[in-house]
Amino acid sequence: MKRVLLSIALILVAGLFVLYGQFPSSFGAKAGISITDQSYQLTPIDYELETEAIAGPTFSVFMEAFRATHFSLQADLSYFLKGSKTSTQSVTVDHSNNDQIIVNEGEMTRSTFKYISLAPMARYRLGKGSFQAYFLLGPRVDILLKYESDSEYPLEDQQRVIPGLTLGAGLEYSLNQLGIFTELQFQGDIMPVTGQDPLLVNNHLLSLTLGLRWLVSD
């Protein structure tokens, strides 16, 4: 499995180098805030822990190439903070009492995962005026930089590389060769953070950013 993930990461990185090696149509940067949560599922008893979302900073640099009337390719290199909060300390099953689930709660704890993200995406633009709506869709690979948790039971054996899918939409205002835009992205992961039973943890992220785009060629 690790070899498969590494191969996926290398393919995406190679695709980025190909895209970045082309004369760019535009490039720029964006920054903002992300709202992220996680699903904690205990597979033997089919139970999902209650979690709360956390907010964190995000920023990206990007480059666009192969720009046509509506379609183009865009590659994002981003930093994201993912994670969640929970007050659940332990979950047990009382098999002598109809498999009753007993949840022990304590103080709220916070777990965070810091990732560098590589995302080559297709970009579709609507209209040709000063204001243009656009949509983004493509694969993504998250590379873990650091994991932190103040829980008494921190996660073990986190996946270092996690493939996923990015879906985005934005609105851009163009002034000559400068574009100012706001963008909303949703990120889903193809595989869990832990990747093993009995606890499966999956990331979910929604980000809102503001950015600047410098148009090199139209």
CATH topology: Porin
First-to-last CA distance: 42 Å
Number of domains: 1
Low-confidence stretches: none
Total E-strand runs: 9
Proportion of residues in extended strands = over 45%
Mean pLDDT: 82
Portion in helices: under 10%
Q: What is the N-to-C succession of helices and strands?
A: HEEEEEEEEE
Rg (CA only): 20 Å
The shape is elongated
User: Can you name the CATH architecture?
Assistant: Beta Barrel
Top CATH class: Mainly Beta
What about the largest sheet? 8 strands, antiparallel, barrel
Structural class based on helices, strands and sheet pairing: mainly beta
Number of helices: 1
Strand order of the largest sheet: 1-3-4-5-6-7-8-9
Q: What does the model show?
A:
- With 218 residues, the protein is mainly beta.
- It has a single domain, classed as Porin (Beta Barrel).
- Strand 1 and strand 2 form a beta hairpin.
- The longest helix is centred in the first third of the chain and has 20 residues.
- It is elongated, with a radius of gyration of 20 Å.
List key phrases describing it:
single chain; 218 residues; mainly beta; Porin; eight-stranded antiparallel beta barrel
Condensed summary:
The radius of gyration is 20 Å and the shape is elongated.
Would you spell out the secondary-structure blueprint of this structure?
Elements: H1 2-21, E1 26-42, E2 47-49, E3 54-65, E4 71-94, E5 100-126, E6 131-149, E7 161-175, E8 178-189, E9 199-215
Antiparallel strand pairs: 1-2, 1-3, 1-9, 3-4, 4-5, 5-6, 6-7, 7-8, 8-9
